[in-house]
Amino acid sequence: MLIDQISAFAALDDLSQLAVGFANGAVTVVRGDLIHDRGARQRTVFESEEPITGIEFREGNITTLYIATTGRIATLVISGRGQGQPARSLDETGCGVECMTVDKATRDVIVARDDAIYTYGLHGRGPFYAYEGQKKMITIFKDYVAVVSPPKTNTITRSGPLRAFGGGSHADDIFNTSSFTLLNIDLKFIAHQEALSSQVKALVSEWGDLFILTTDGKVSKPSFEFSVL
Q1: How buried is 175 (Cβ within 10 angstroms: 0-12 exposed, 13-18 middle, 19+ buried)?
Q2: What's the CATH code of the domain at 23?
Q3: CA distance 116 to 124
Q4: Which residues contact 28 (CB under 8 A, 6 or more apart)?
Q5: How many whole angstroms separate alpha carbon 76 and alpha carbon 63?
Q6: What is the C-alpha to C-alpha distance for residues 102 and 110, in angstroms, rounded to an integer?
Q7: Hey, which bits of 80-208 come out as E strands?
Q8: Which domain holds residue 179?
């Protein structure tokens, strides 16, 4: 039996609902007492020909899922008024894996693409912040959008000039680095930027701090040179 690859995941804070996206384009919602493993039930709520790249919950009187694929951004009501209706398309451009997050203060989603950082509400696309370059990962940290980007030198192949001229170890260092940036997309400025010596595996915002987990198994906090409001 083939098991479809999980490509996106989201959960409510009380773990009463989970949403799982798959590379085959399906989204499954799991409901029930998941903490005590009692009465959980699941159903497929969305199907697409494109891989799922992001899922986020928007809570309220109506619970809505924001769903990203490689080709579009959509919303789907999963409880409350409007439940059972087809997904509503917000944009015919999608995003990469880990390039969508939710701002819990505004309940809008933030989407990172190579040209800009975009915001989406229930009725469509909102303001955007022009910020060019490849994006690997984003999350919300207080009033800021945290962005991880691979180094621009990743466009050079490992068998390119750096190796040809004896720069093997230096080349490996360059290919393993990442760029970490904090953006204030409301006031439109870069608040902080630094290079990281390892590739980033995850960003975690918890206990009022932001933590970076790298592929070498280390957890660190960015070295902010300013006071984050």
Answers
A1: middle
A2: 2.120.10.30
A3: 16
A4: 19, 20, 22, 42, 43, 44, 45
A5: 9
A6: 6
A7: 88-91, 100-103, 108-112, 116-121, 124-130, 137-141, 144-149, 178-184, 189-196, 200-206
A8: 133-229
Count of domains observed in the chain? 2
Are 139 and 218 in the same domain?
A: yes
CA angle 73, 100, 217 (to 5 degrees): 150
Q: Is 135 in contact with 114 (CB distance < 8 Å)? A: yes
The proportion of the chain whose per-residue pLDDT surpasses 70, expressed as a percent, equals 85
**Residues 136-194: tens digit of each pLDDT:** 999 999 889 999 998 765 444 433 433 333 344 444 444 567 889 999 988 888 988 88
- Residue 197's closest CA among 221, 214, 217, 219? 214
Contacts 24+ apart (CB under 8 A), 14-21: 17/57, 17/63, 17/78, 19/55, 19/57, 19/65, 19/78, 20/55, 21/52, 21/53, 21/54, 21/55, 21/67
Tens of pLDDT, residue by residue over 46-94, are 999 999 999 999 988 889 999 999 999 999 999 888 788 999 999 999 9
Residue 115, domain member (yes or no): no
Task: Let me know whether 149 and 74 are in one domain.
Answer: no
pLDDT in tens, 21-39: 999 999 999 988 777 777 7
DSSP 71: S
How much is the pTM?
0.81
C-alpha separations of 121 from 48, 56, 73 in Å = 21, 12, 11
Q: What is the pLDDT at residue 219?
A: 87
C-beta atoms surrounding 57 within 10 Å: 21
